[in-house]
Protein 1
Amino acid sequence: MIVIFGIKENLNPIKAQLSDVIHSCMESVLSIPEDKRAHRFVPMNKEDFYYPGGRSDAYTVIEINMMIGRKIEIQKNLIKLLFKEIENKLAIPPVDIEIIIKEQAPYQWGFRGMTGDEVNDLKYKINV
């Protein structure tokens, strides 16, 4: 599950393209299948979205929620590829992107009527 926050005037026009870029990076680094896209966009009013100095109104926060198990280098590769591809495809510089990876134990995930530690038919690896 990925949640993307930004100022609505800047985020709304690029949602589809940003989703494509994010998922492409997830496929490349984590081998997430094409049909496992789970993105939630939270366009915000400017007066409700405070961000650090030195950033523009294009400032965007990307929270990536995943089951624990990916190695540090894999996670770092994902972050670096996201910075690169977002800048290349959407012209948003890395200073305007914040990426947070939040890991939870598989038993803390619930989907398809079971918890993540009960699932045995995922088409991608968690422990990589």
Note: Residues 12 and 43 are 7 Å apart (CA to CA).
Protein 2
Amino acid sequence: MTAPRARTRREIKAYRRPRRHKCWNHLVVAPLWPLHGVNLGTLLRTCDAVGGCMAVPRLPWVPEALDKGNTLRRNPCIHWTSTNAGLWLDRQRADGAYIVGVELTDESIRLADLPAARGRTVIVLGHEQTGIPPEGLARIDIAVEIPMIGSGVSLNVAVAGSLVAYKLAGLL
């Protein structure tokens, strides 16, 4: 049995980037109530990996956190929202986006049952400690939960957002 051969950077690039993505026609990862800057950098990398974009509120510390966390060689696709997340979500829905909240609710579906996105989809991520606030939950079309066996209540926002983004992109 021969050992697997790792692809070269050129092979990877040719395979993954056949054409430029159109950010508003696919996935937008939206950590609208961020607490930790390190999570934004991780989500930015995931957005690039799935061909999506990130929407973040224009808080004073967010641009620096994104600059620090950006390990990509090109400028990532970032959209700035107002600090009023509810109004931003209302505009996304009015523009035809499907809103998916990553939250534990009585109506949440399991991540495994979430179909790939068929159109522009916004993935709403809540605050690392308190989740999606009521004004955000009132605006989502569907809630998705990531089942856990361990003793923790939830996953890190960057990890949870990455799992949902991969699933909605049809890559899992």
Note: The beta strands are 27-31, 53-57, 78-81, 98-102, 109-110, 121-125, 142-145.
Protein 3
Amino acid sequence: MRKTVDNVEKACEGIESGMTLMLGGFGLCGIPENSIAHLVEMGVKDLTCISNNAGVDDFGLGLLLQKKQIKKMISSYVGENDEFERQMLSGELEVDLIPQGSLAERCRAGGNGIPAFYTPAGYGTEVAEGKEVRDFDGKPHILETALTADYAIVKAWKGDTEGNLIYKGTARNFNPVMAMAGKTTIAEVEILVEAGELDPNEIHTPGIFVQRIFKGEKFEKRIEQLTVRKKA
């Protein structure tokens, strides 16, 4: 089934205020840049965003935070965004911080139809408040529920017209598990080829999980923290 759409505007049709979105990426690596920029233009508000982090102040999800379009963030790491910090401390933004492994597993569980699972991560901290606790082999575990979204928006290096995706290096990060957990999954890619041109053994996300795919117009690929070694 051909799943290509002409542009980001077509890909994001149907996204409305108040929806829950999953957005792939880690830091600024592997984020769906074109889609995020278009969400800003769309002006949708009261969004619940599930993402490893909230970008930086002037890029990634930070652009949506600037416009006060996000109501709640479900994240693991948020240390690079001053506006995020300000909104969280002022009570303008609801925040659910989750251990990174638990966040990945909750997304994976959602994509696999697993409603919940037990994990020791977070026991004895605020993460465990209000959650069921059960002992396994004498060790306490907390019950974590699966995460799903109205739309999952991911970024891949290469994809084909049937929605099969290949990620490049560390840009894979949260993208594969989130691609599985959206009711509708949108993939923006750098390279778009015809069906049959990808080696099946190299595909990371099968096209069955993707409903829309488009070729992004521009990828800035910013570096979040650049550290270089001084010359001797």
Note: The chain has a mean pLDDT of 95.
Protein 4
Amino acid sequence: MSKGPFDSRHPLVGLVDETIRLNSRLRSAFAAARADSALNDSEQMVLNAVVEAEKAPTVAQIGRSMGQARQLVQRAANSLRESGLIEMVDNPDHKRAPLLRATQPGLALKRELDARAEAIAEDLLPAADLETVREATRALRTIRRKLEAQLRAR
């Protein structure tokens, strides 16, 4: 494998560049999955974060985990609530920061979007490459968790 002009930089910088490029490609490839949903990027991000969270998150927690401004997440959460896709419930740990929880319509929409995305994924990537994707996912999750722990410690 030949070396490029930027191979001497810190590996994390290279990962950032590749992640940006991959994100752009994936967003384009999977745009059709949510074409009919009327969700914008921020709303999709928040719905995913709420549905996939181990426990009901707050707006601030989603913002921190996604590297997004709390205000952006709040606007998306308000829109999702107005659409009946999530609800805000009392947070026993914080009076002014409600927990976000998906409603049945929100869960149904997420399942529908995932099914559409699954069909696109099946078409894009042959089954032989699935283990490579799983390994990459595990590696990225590990890196993300380490970065989040470092940022929390600061």
Note: The longest helix spans residues 130-153.
